[in-house]
């Protein structure tokens, strides 16, 4: 794929996500199967509720992650700037989109370089894990981490998307060894992240065994990248593949629960179809440390910086309301409270 094609793909992804219906049709994030037990007399002052938490030894103002989305175009630069300014204001972490385009075309690196807008929040660099088989290695990982002044590197894992994407990179052979090399040599933690099809407990165990520090489950139920790539398909086969696999994946809630059964301490990010603070609170109660949203932030950032701040304010209010109405003063107490109950089985 040429450098120009990579940049066009970035622009296509933003346009399609904003303008087309590319959400999962049949599979949900699974969180609707759970319900909090209402506490009618919480014995709390709502103003005392504390949403602060830590992730990868960094203090956060709330358990909210602005998930990795974009970069590489003028529109993406505007979106990333707005997101970074808001993230700094509320002390929440932010990931950027795949920086592969910046490796191929260094002049667009500034579309990712948001540290000047967010001097002291956790920022996560991002590269497709499969690129370790396509002329990327430790040197390139170091470069994108340095460019962003990042606190961690996300290696996103997207076999289904690559199968459907025109000229996708589908050689996933031998990646565990290469991921292990990156994890052992990189001066910042590595986060393994799917892109909307989920990470199973068995796969999480393998990733942790080669040195990955944290897992972002990025489960099914939100944006279907099979559908996104179907919209970009250049022939009938690509369009059909995208539609056939539009509901492929593991629901987010199932990923969180299963991974927690094999490791109670791994830093765990819930993402995939989360749309409001109630989803975030459910994810935390199931065992996630923080929760990431992409589509809601993309839509807000495409509008204005103010819209991003308003979204964060709403999310914080929603999470706070859950804690208040379950009688929990902070997130750790929420996790221990067992106030989240399974009400609908598959």
Q: What is the element layout, followed by pairings?
A:
Blueprint: H1 3-19, E1 34-36, E2 53-55, E3 58-60, E4 64-66, H2 74-90, E5 94-95, H3 100-104, E6 123-128, H4 138-148, E7 152-157, H5 159-164, H6 175-185, E8 190-194, H7 201-209, E9 214-216, H8 225-232, H9 236-244, H10 252-262, E10 268-271, H11 277-286, E11 290-293, H12 295-301, H13 305-326, H14 331-337, E12 340-342
Parallel strand pairs: 4-11, 5-6, 6-7, 7-8, 8-9, 9-10, 10-11
Antiparallel strand pairs: 1-12, 2-3
Helix pairs in contact: 1-8, 2-13, 7-10, 8-9, 11-13, 12-13
Keywords:
single chain; alpha/beta; 8-stranded parallel β-sheet; two-stranded antiparallel sheet
What does the model show?
With 346 residues, the chain is α/β, with parallel strands linked by helices. Helices cover 43% and strands 13% of the residues. The protein has 14 helices and twelve strands. An eight-stranded parallel sheet has the order 4-11-10-9-8-7-6-5. Helix 7 (201-209) links the parallel strand 8 and strand 9 (214-216). Helix 1 (3-19) packs across helix 8 and helix 11 (277-286) crosses helix 13 (305-326).
In short:
With 346 residues, the protein is of the alpha/beta class. It is built from 14 helices and twelve strands. The strands form three sheets. An eight-stranded parallel beta sheet has the order 4-11-10-9-8-7-6-5. A two-stranded antiparallel sheet has the order 1-12.
């Amino acid at each position: 794929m040429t450098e120009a094609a990579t940049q066009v793909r970035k622009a296509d992804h933003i346009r399609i996500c904003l303008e087309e219906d590319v959400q999962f049709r049949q599979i949900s994030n699974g969180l609707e199967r759970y319900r909090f037990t209402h506490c009618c007399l919480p014995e709390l002052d709502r103003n005392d509720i504390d949403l602060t938490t830590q992730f990868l030894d960094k203090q956060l103002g709330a358990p909210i992650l602005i998930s990795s989305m974009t970069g590489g175009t003028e529109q993406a630069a505007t979106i990333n700037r707005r997101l970074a300014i808001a993230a700094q204001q509320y002390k929440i972490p932010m990931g950027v989109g795949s920086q592969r385009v910046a490796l191929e075309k260094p002049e667009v690196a500034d579309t990712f370089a948001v540290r000047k807008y967010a001097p002291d929040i956790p920022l996560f660099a991002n590269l497709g894990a499969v690129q370790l088989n396509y002329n990327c290695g430790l040197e390139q990982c170091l470069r994108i981490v340095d460019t962003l002044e990042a606190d961690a590197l996300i290696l996103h894992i997207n076999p289904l998307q690559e199968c459907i994407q025109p000229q996708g990179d589908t050689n996933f052979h031998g990646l565990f060894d290469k991921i292990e090399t990156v994890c052992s040599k990189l001066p910042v933690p590595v986060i393994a992240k799917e892109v909307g099809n989920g990470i199973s407990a068995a796969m999480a165990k393998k990733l942790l065994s080669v040195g990955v520090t944290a897992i972002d489950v990025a489960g099914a139920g939100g944006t279907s990248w099979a559908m996104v790539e179907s919209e970009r398909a250049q022939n009938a086969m690509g369009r059909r593949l995208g539609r056939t696999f539009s509901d492929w994946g593991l629901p987010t809630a199932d990923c969180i629960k299963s991974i927690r059964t094999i490791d109670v301490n791994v830093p765990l990010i819930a993402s995939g179809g989360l749309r409001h603070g109630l989803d975030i609170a459910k994810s935390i109660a199931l065992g996630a440390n923080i929760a990431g949203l992409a589509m809601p932030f993309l839509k807000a950032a495409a509008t204005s910086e103010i819209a991003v701040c308003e979204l964060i304010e709403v999310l914080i209010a929603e999470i706070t309301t859950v804690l208040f109405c379950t009688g929990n003063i902070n997130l750790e107490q929420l996790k221990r409270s067992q106030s989240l109950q399974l009400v609908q089985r598959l």
